[in-house]
């Protein structure tokens, strides 16, 4: 992909969104479910869309919330529903719409006591903590499109296990929501927002104190405080911005928020690689402001708007590659926690094979699963997984005593873990990565996209291993061809091909007319480019065989 000439530079007036127009479109434009782009569609992180494109509007939200209300009633969930929102412009009106429907359905809804923002990992922690001691099961909704541009809105459902809802659940919600929209919402129960705010079914709780008080269960906060490590924090205008000062005061940690601004236009953000405003804490362009401050702090961290992702900036290496940080996090945790040796390391199949080498080096079991954090939920819940991580800078791990901490990605604990590593070992995560690479091999990782038709994406999503006829990849003999993940035997929705020193995986996009190739080499970048080239030839041969 060509890098935009303004990438990494401050947003210009022409890059800013018209918030008034966007919110008006949310309320005034009505979706037509006969148009595919205007239907409720749940991906791996819920339903996302844009009000002006009629893909995230009031009708979508009230229909989804009614579908969730009906689902939880059918399942017998009688506990509270914890409701959170991030800082996107559409999150506020969607939050009001959600309350109006949920309360009308006599669902006990709990929100932040100051009507403030709530990060995704906090909702997960609330659900898990409640359900540990109560028979009446709780669940949650988070209104967020994650790191998407300011024009977007999103909503995702976390059932009683506390993590992202599985496909069979989201399919039920998606189907019912579209039915409700098609019948002009006649079965949707609503209450005037002013009445809903006064309802006995709506209550408020201090989520910040609840979450922050428990952090020492999962992170060695005392070690961080004792070391005097200085931490620069850029919340990127996200939902955790008011949590960091509470963390600093509670544990006596030297934290400075370098950007205290909350602005739904996110006009303070440097532009991402494509010239758009995107709060991607794994992007060196979106994070260029924090990277420029790297020498001011021992460590600097950033998060996306709902705080389920992390970005780690070190003095020694700048912004860390997410795969590199996953590897050093796993190595540190598995050698500095007294967890059972049977606890698995969970990774998605498009994450770096350096993780495989780390697992082998420290003699810990590895479980490789398809893309999507939902595959780690059960393992994190029963602590059979000690760690679950994605190459897209999202991860979580169990508490210090081996119990479940969260079943969703937690950007707070991944950021604080970097500080703990530095405090305990005297080395920052990048320095430790350099040592690991010297021991286990230097990974070269890349990802590319290619145009694909609907028919081609369909073929690729259901491909079988025997569809690959090549026996060589980038000059090496192919050792393994996978259409199902070895960790849980679930379908990949694509293909992964491995050799002794490299691999590639190809998967269709769920939202765009493209497919993605992920690749890695442990030889050099030239070998990586050869893997990518051969991968494209292999995929094109599959399309040709299918007559496409």
What layout of secondary structure does this protein have?
Blueprint: H1 19-28, E1 42-43, E2 46-50, H2 58-75, E3 81-85, H3 91-104, E4 109-112, H4 120-133, E5 139-143, E6 152-158, H5 167-182, H6 193-197, E7 202-205, H7 207-212, H8 221-227, E8 230-234, H9 243-251, E9 254-257, H10 288-291, E10 299-303, E11 310-314, E12 318-319, H11 322-336, E13 344-348, H12 354-361, E14 366-369, H13 377-381, E15 385-390, E16 394-397, H14 411-425, H15 429-440, E17 444-451, H16 454-461, E18 472-473, E19 476-477, E20 480-484, E21 491-498, E22 502-508, E23 514-521, H17 525-545
Parallel strand pairs: 3-4, 3-5, 4-7, 8-9, 8-10, 13-14, 13-15
Antiparallel strand pairs: 1-2, 2-6, 5-6, 10-11, 11-12, 15-16, 17-23, 18-19, 20-21, 21-22, 22-23
Helix pairs in contact: 2-3, 2-5, 8-14, 11-12, 11-15
Q: How does this model look, in words?
A:
The chain is of the alpha/beta class and 548 residues long. It has three domains: 17-210, Alpha-D-Glucose-1,6-Bisphosphate, subunit A, domain 3 (Alpha-D-Glucose-1,6-Bisphosphate, Chain A, domain 3), CATH 3.40.120; 213-258 and 293-440, 3-Layer(aba) Sandwich (Alpha-D-Glucose-1,6-Bisphosphate, Chain A, domain 3); 444-545, Alpha-D-phosphohexomutase, C-terminal domain (TATA-Binding Protein), CATH 3.30.310. Helix content is 34%, strand content 20%. It has 17 helices and 23 strands. The chain has helices at residues 19-28, 58-75, 91-104, 120-133, 167-182, 193-197, 207-212, 221-227, 243-251, 288-291, 322-336, 354-361, 377-381, 411-425, 429-440, 454-461, 525-545, and strands spanning 42-43, 46-50, 81-85, 109-112, 139-143, 152-158, 202-205, 230-234, 254-257, 299-303, 310-314, 318-319, 344-348, 366-369, 385-390, 394-397, 444-451, 472-473, 476-477, 480-484, 491-498, 502-508, 514-521. The strands form five sheets. Strands 1-2-6-5-3-4-7 form a seven-stranded mixed sheet, sandwiched between helices. Helix 2 crosses helix 3 and helix 8 packs across helix 14. The longest helix is centred in the C-terminal third of the chain and has 21 residues, at 525-545. 53% of the residues are buried. The model has no long low-confidence stretch (mean pLDDT 96).
């Amino acid at each position: 992909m060509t890098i935009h000439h303004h990438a990494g530079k401050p947003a210009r007036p022409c890059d800013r969104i018209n918030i008034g127009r966007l919110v008006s479109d949310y309320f005034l434009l009505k979706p037509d479910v006969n148009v595919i782009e205007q239907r409720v569609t749940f991906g791996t992180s819920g339903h996302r869309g844009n009000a002006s494109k009629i893909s995230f509007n009031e009708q979508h939200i009230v229909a989804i919330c009614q579908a969730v209300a009906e689902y939880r009633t059918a399942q017998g969930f009688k506990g509270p529903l914890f409701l959170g929102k991030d800082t996107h412009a559409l999150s506020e009106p969607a939050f009001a719409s959600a309350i109006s429907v949920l309360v009308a359905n006599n669902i006990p809804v709990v929100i932040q006591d100051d009507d403030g923002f709530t990060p995704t990992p906090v909702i997960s922690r609330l659900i898990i903590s409640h359900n540990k001691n109560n028979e009446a099961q709780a669940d949650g909704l988070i209104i967020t499109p994650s790191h998407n541009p300011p024009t977007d809105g999103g909503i995702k459902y976390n059932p009683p296990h506390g993590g992202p809802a599985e496909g069979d659940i989201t399919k039920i919600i998606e189907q019912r929501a579209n039915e409700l929209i098609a019948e002009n919402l006649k079965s949707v129960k609503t209450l005037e927002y002013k009445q809903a705010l006064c309802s006995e079914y709506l209550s408020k709780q201090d989520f910040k104190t609840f979450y922050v008080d428990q952090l020492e269960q999962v992170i060695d906060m005392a070690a961080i405080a004792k070391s005097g490590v200085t931490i620069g924090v850029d919340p990127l205008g996200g939902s955790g911005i008011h949590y960091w000062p509470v963390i600093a005061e509670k544990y006596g940690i030297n934290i400075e928020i370098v950007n205290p601004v909350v602005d739904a236009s996110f006009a303070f953000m440097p532009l991402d690689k494509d010239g758009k405003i995107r709060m991607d804490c794994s992007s060196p362009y979106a994070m260029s402001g924090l990277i420029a401050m790297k020498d001011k702090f021992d460590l600097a961290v950033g998060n996306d708007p709902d705080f389920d992702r992390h970005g780690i900036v070190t003095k020694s290496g700048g912004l860390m590659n997410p795969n590199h940080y996953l590897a050093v996090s796993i190595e540190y945790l598995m050698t500095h926690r007294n967890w059972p040796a049977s606890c698995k390391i969970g990774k998605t199949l498009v994450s770096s094979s350096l993780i495989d080498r780390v697992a082998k080096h420290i003699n810990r079991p590895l479980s490789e699963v398809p893309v999507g954090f939902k595959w780690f939920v059960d393992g994190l819940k029963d602590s059979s997984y000690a760690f679950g991580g994605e190459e897209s800078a999202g991860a979580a791990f169990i508490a210090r005593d081996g119990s479940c901490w969260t079943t969703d990605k937690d950007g707070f604990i991944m950021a604080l873990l970097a500080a703990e590593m530095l405090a305990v070992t005297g080395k920052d995560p990048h320095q430790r990565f350099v040592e690991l690479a010297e021991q286990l091999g230097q990974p070269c990782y890349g990802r590319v996209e290619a145009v694909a038709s609907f028919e081609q994406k369909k073929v690729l999503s259901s491909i079988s291993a025997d569809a690959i006829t090549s026996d060589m990849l980038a000059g090496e003999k192919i050792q393994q061809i996978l259409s199902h993940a070895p960790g849980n035997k679930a379908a990949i929705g694509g293909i992964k091909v491995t050799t002794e020193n490299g691999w590639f995986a190809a998967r269709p996009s769920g939202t765009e007319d493209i497919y993605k190739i992920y690749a890695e080499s442990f030889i050099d970048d030239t070998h990586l480019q050869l893997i990518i080239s051969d991968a494209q030839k292999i995929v094109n041969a599959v399309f040709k065989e299918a007559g496409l």
